[in-house]
Design brief:
Length: about 400
């Protein structure tokens, strides 16, 4: 049996819950489906403070933030169904695995707010032994904050994104000795001040520009991590390795259902209204790209709700132009499509995989239209503005990035 409902939001993290809360405030009936036993999303596993400042003018831990989002959603009238894991989408029918068997729903509008997943050792092609002591930041946070235990006494951290330093802080707080962080790039991928601060206060050496990383040991027990820097072979003694960051959208299920998939973002194509070309579906939050801070996902979810509400109240046909942007240097760009029937504040926003200097060029029907100099760090979002674009259906928009700097 298929249950017909008004709006389904899949994923009860900051984006899904803020979207659902706003929809309920706009008098829409909305059900949030979450696969976990608790709603709140990723923040539930982040025991440190640093959440809620812009949204609620309060400094909260991740679990407190998740609980507050849940409370606000319930107070607004949102129905939250836990232990509902979306595993298949057949046309517009959502299939959930639940403790009581498979349940099927069909909604007038569906919002995907599925979040991201951290890359593990296999995604980075790191060779060496297998061991239960090879974990991710998420697993580390769960050990420390949920089970109040530690997985090992000494470790090496792979990667230098913001979340890698969060893993370092959690490790240090739990007396896990992190002597070394390793990074393949020349510079760290986060704020450069974090390198001297970590070295001074945590006595953690950050080795950048390393290669040939391999994990050594015997019988699943790690003895050391070996890296190469220039001609030098370096061995770092440790009992465990923490793979951090490299966030990828939780989008396998979307890739299976939607042909219109963006391989740069590893997610679905969406307009500035967070809407897919099949207008029954929307997507918001980290599932659209890599990881942004929780407050950004919260506000984005809320904005998405207004577009979902509008689409039900005054249905306008979408007039879509896809933005072509094929660049190996780019981590993600959103939106990836423009709906000409909806106001546009900018063309798109993007992030690079690593520090970049160069030029972005926007071509309209093959003719260069916007030139934008770039000097960006990997954690900085670059906005390409909308400057008096006279665009009509059938036009072609392409963005090209070249690393050669241009005199401006
Ligand atoms: C270690 C760490 C530390 C962080 N620290 C901070 C910080 O201090 N401050 C800050 O602002 N941000 C921080 N963040 C980032 C923040 O947690 C995320 O930006 C935010 O949670 C993203 O919200 P979201 O709703 O898009 O996704 P998520 O919070 O990931 O929520 C997605 C939800 O969808 C559910 N889901 C996925 N697939 C399915 C499915 N098939 N069926 C049903 N449900 C599904 C998931 O279970 C999850 O509950 C941190 C992140 C990490 C990993």
């Amino acid at each position: 049996m298929v249950n017909d409902i008004n709006i389904a939001v899949i994923g009860a993290g900051p984006a899904g819950l803020s979207c659902a809360t706003q929809l309920a405030k706009l008098s829409q009936e909305v059900i949030v489906f979450e696969r976990q036993t608790k709603s709140g999303g990723t923040p539930l596993h982040c025991g440190h403070k640093g959440f809620g400042m812009l949204e609620f003018q309060r400094v909260l831990t991740g679990p407190q933030y998740g609980e507050l989002l849940t409370k606000k959603a319930k107070n607004a009238g949102v129905d939250i169904r836990l232990r509902h894991s979306l595993y298949k989408i057949e046309d517009d029918i959502l299939h959930f695995a639940t403790p009581n068997g498979v349940k099927k729903y069909r909604a007038k509008r569906v919002v995907f707010a599925l979040g991201v997943r951290e890359s593990h050792r296999s995604n980075y092609f790191i060779s060496g032994i297998r061991s239960p002591n090879i974990i991710t930041t998420g697993a580390l946070q769960r050990f420390v904050y949920e089970y109040e235990s530690i997985p090992f006494k000494s470790g090496t951290i792979y990667n230098t994104e913001l979340v890698s330093f969060s893993a370092l802080a959690t490790s240090k707080k739990s007396d896990i000795d992190i002597k070394t962080m390793v990074e393949k790039e020349k510079n760290i991928k986060s704020f450069s001040i974090l390198k001297p601060l970590s070295e001074k206060f945590f006595e953690t050496v950050i080795r950048t520009g390393v290669k040939d990383i391999s994990i050594y040991g015997e019988d699943k027990k790690i003895s050391h991590v070996a890296v190469k820097k220039g001609d030098r072979n370096i061995a770092v003694e440790c009992e465990g390795v923490i793979f951090t960051g490299g966030f990828r959208p939780e989008s396998a299920i979307l890739q299976e259902r939607f042909k219109d998939f963006n391989h740069t973002n590893k997610s679905v194509n969406t307009t500035q209204a967070f809407r897919l070309s099949d207008g029954r579906f929307f997507a918001t939050g980290n599932v659209l790209r890599g990881a942004l801070a929780a407050f950004k996902c919260y506000f984005e979810g809320k904005r998405c709700a207004n577009f979902v509400d509008n689409s039900l109240k005054e249905e306008k046909e979408q007039e879509i132009i896809k933005i072509k942007f094929d660049s190996d240097e780019v981590d993600w760009f959103t939106p990836t499509m423009i709906d000409l029937n909806i106001e546009r504040k900018y063309l798109t926003k993007l992030r690079f995989k690593k520090e970049q200097k160069g030029e972005l060029k926007v071509l309209l029907n093959g003719k260069p239209f916007i030139f934008q100099g770039v000097n960006a760090k990997p954690y900085e979002t670059v906005t390409i503005p909308w400057i008096n674009f006279e665009v009509k259906k059938g036009d072609k928009i392409e963005i090209v990035f070249t690393t050669a700097p241009r005199d401006i």
